[in-house]
Design brief:
Residues 16-77 form the BED-type domain. It is found in: Nucleus. One of its GO terms (cellular component) is nucleus. Keywords: DNA-binding, Metal-binding, Nucleus, Zinc, Zinc-finger. A hairpin with a 2-residue loop joins strand 4 and strand 5 (184-194). The protein is globular. The protein folds into 4 domains: 2-95, no CATH class; 99-269 and 287-293 and 579-620, no CATH class; 301-422, no CATH class; 439-509 and 531-571, no CATH class. It is α+β, with helices and mostly antiparallel strands and 620 residues long. The strands form 3 sheets. A 5-stranded mixed beta sheet has the order 6-5-4-7-8, with helices on both faces. Helix 12 crosses helix 13 and helix 21 (486-503) crosses helix 24 (558-567). It is built from 26 helices and 10 strands. The chain has helices at 2-11, 18-21, 60-69, 86-95, 100-113, 124-131, 144-168, 216-229, 245-253, 278-283, 300-318, 320-342, 344-354, 368-377, 381-391, 398-421, 431-445, 449-458, 460-463, 466-473, 486-503, 506-509, 533-546, 558-567, 575-587, 597-608; strands at residues 28-33, 38-43, 51-55, 172-181, 184-194, 200-210, 236-241, 296-298, 512-513, 530-531.
């Protein structure tokens, strides 16, 4: 209230400050200056803080309001009178102004968060706005060069804080991808971890310019260098990428031992085991494998997208009956998309019929074909065909229209699964329950056998992976509820108990029931110490499976909590790094194509990590 009082007093002449000296002024808050004679205030006693108008020189309106609306309230006079010396009041106003550091931080947040050019600080109109902000004496916004230096220092500070945070994390995961724009390629990497309060966190580590061909050795070297620069050696549970062959080969070649991802290959064929002469391998080692990478998880969203496009397209084109109707219906839809996207009048005619614009499928957006077709079939056929006639394109017949509707019915479960797996809060533990439900729904719909086979083939290395099973089983909302087969449920439970023993601290693992001192004659006998740890592990798992489904339940089970933090640190999708690139497209706009690669990376990382918004920083 004092700040409101100071603002009001700054507008009033020395002899005219009736409201300031009124004994009940503390029941009202200043809102705005309406004119030279009137001000607007809000009553703090009214529900919703009613807006009232009063004169600067009279409080009669406010007295009447109190008497009429709050007659049952026992009013108390303001115990503290405001200073009568207006010079002192103005000094207080200046004392509450922003410091130079606060002003720079606010402007930096505006420029970085809204992805504006740094030259904004040199804009005359922008500086005029900033000058209206109350600041302490002598505070001015720096020019572009000085402000750029300030951003550099803030980036270094952010980077140091991130490294310190990651040093405390026991388990992390990363996502990686390559983005090409304006004939430049950038390697993007994000990191994800779960802290001790079970809050999921994320940050961008790099969006680094890479030159030359994107070969597996270049990719492997860049990823390892980025991991090393943040001290992540030995902490990365897995790196998630798309299904590109160069990424797959980088992780297959650059891993020190056989891991789950090594069994993944483009065709899914089993390979015969090979035996290597260790001495020969060491003597002929080349520079290709001078680094090692963490386990490789393929992006589940990208894999599902491949099923919904490549595999389904191949299946529909393999049968003569479906091939004809599939090709003709998609061709007519493509003609409609092309017409509506290239002609303003055509787009307006479509909007008149459907009340929405059509969506055009793109190769870079998952689910785009499904969403584009879904938008078309919302238009009844008796309205769609007259529209096609107006636009001069071929009409859909009844069979083609029904095919599109059936296509969307069958594809919808895939799109729902894809959206779940690329969600911000999705953990790796959601992957197997999602795939299990997806398979069940496809079986219920009696959909194409090819789609079911494609899921089992492309996710063959995942469906029975121990990492996926443990990630799902340690999620309180899943546990073992998604496992329908009784034998598999028992297997996962035993797996939980085994891992729980490993996760237990060494003091628990070595805890045994000691035999008390006995008479000398008992030394003749040899007794086996009875371990007590196995029972505690079984009890912890059993109690956990019987507990509730809230995430906070894990705090009662320390070993299972540690397992959850480990196996759920990876994301099932590489969507986080894709979102990094989406922001990159806004930062590296055509008007800013002369920006240096390093400055672009710093501005992008500061934006993704919310450098100037601490409340949002690192939250997924």
């Amino acid at each position: 209230r004092l700040s409101h009082h100071l603002i009001i007093s700054s507008f009033l002449p020395k002899a005219q400050h009736t409201f300031n000296t009124w004994k009940y002024r503390h029941y009202f808050e200043f809102d705005s200056l309406k004119s030279d004679k009137n001000i607007s205030v809000r009553c703090t006693l009214c529900i919703g803080r009613k807006l009232l108008s009063t004169s600067k020189n009279s409080t009669s309106n406010l007295r009447k309001h109190l008497a009429r609306c709050h007659k049952n309230v026992k009013l108390t006079e303001n115990p503290q009178d405001p200073p009568t010396d207006m010079t002192a009041v103005k000094l207080d106003v200046r004392a509450t102004g922003l410091s130079g550091a606060e002003l720079k931080k606010l402007v930096a947040a505006y420029i970085v968060e809204d992805m504006l050019p740094i030259s904004t600080v040199d804009s005359e109109s922008f500086r005029c706005i900033v000058e209206k902000i109350p600041t302490k004496s002598g505070v001015k916004l720096p020019q572009r060069k000085s402000f750029a230096g300030y951003l550099e220092r803030e980036y270094d500070k952010m980077n140091s804080n991130l490294k310190a945070t990651l040093e405390e994390a026991e388990f992390v995961s990363t996502t990686a991808d390559i983005w090409t724009v304006n004939n430049k390629s950038f390697m993007g990497v994000t990191v994800h971890w779960i802290n001790s309060t079970l809050q999921r966190n994320k940050a961008a580590l790099a969006c680094k310019r890479i030159r030359g061909s994107h070969t597996y050795d270049v990719i492997g070297a860049e990823i390892e260098e980025i991991h090393s620069s943040y001290g992540l050696q030995g902490k990365v549970i897995a790196t998630v990428t798309d299904n590109a062959s160069n990424f797959a080969k980088a992780f297959r070649v650059c891993q020190p031992c056989h891991l789950e991802s090594e069994s993944e290959n483009e065709e899914g064929d089993d390979e015969e085991p090979t035996f290597t002469d260790v001495i020969e391998a060491l003597s002929t080692a080349s520079g290709d494998a001078q680094f090692s990478l963490p386990p490789h998880y393929r992006c589940a969203s990208h894999t599902i997208n491949l099923i919904s496009t490549s595999d389904v397209d191949k299946d529909l084109n393999s049968c003569g009956d479906s091939k004809a109707v599939y090709r003709s219906s998609i061709a007519k839809c493509s003609a409609l998309w092309t017409k509506a996207s290239r002609s303003t009048s055509a787009s307006e005619q479509v909007e008149e019929v459907s009340l929405r614009k059509l969506m055009v499928p793109t190769s870079t957006r998952w689910n785009s074909l499904y969403e584009a077709i879904s938008r078309i079939i919302t238009i009844p056929l008796n309205e769609l065909n007259p529209l096609c006639v107006k636009l001069g394109i071929k009409c859909l017949n009844e069979r083609e229209y029904q095919f599109l509707k059936e296509y969307c019915t069958v594809m919808k479960p895939l799109t729902v699964a894809l959206d779940i797996l690329q969600g911000d809060e999705c953990t790796y533990g959601a992957l197997l329950p999602t795939l299990t439900s997806l398979i069940k729904i496809i079986l219920f719909l009696d959909a194409s056998y090819c789609m079911l086979q494609a899921i089992k083939t492309r996710f063959d290395a995942v469906l029975d992976s121990q990492e996926g099973l443990l990630a799902a089983a340690t999620c309180p909302k899943f546990k073992l509820r998604w496992v329908r087969d009784e034998h598999r449920r028992e297997y996962v439970k035993e797996l939980l108990i085994t891992e729980c023993r490993k996760a237990a601290p060494a003091t628990e693992n070595t805890n045994v029931s000691q035999i008390p001192d006995s008479p000398a004659e008992m030394d003749f006998f040899e007794f086996q110490n009875q371990p007590s740890e196995s029972f505690s592990a079984e009890k912890e798992v059993t109690d956990f499976l019987r507990s509730g489904y809230e995430l906070e339940i894990l705090n009662q089970f320390p070993n299972l909590k540690k397992m959850y933090m480990k196996y759920n640190s990876p994301t099932p999708s590489s969507a986080p790094v894709e979102r990094l690139f989406s922001l990159g497209g806004l930062v590296l706009s055509p008007k800013r194509n002369r920006m240096s690669d390093r400055r672009f990376e710093k501005l992008l990382l500061m934006r993704y990590n919310h450098c100037f918004s601490p409340k949002e920083n690192n939250k997924t």
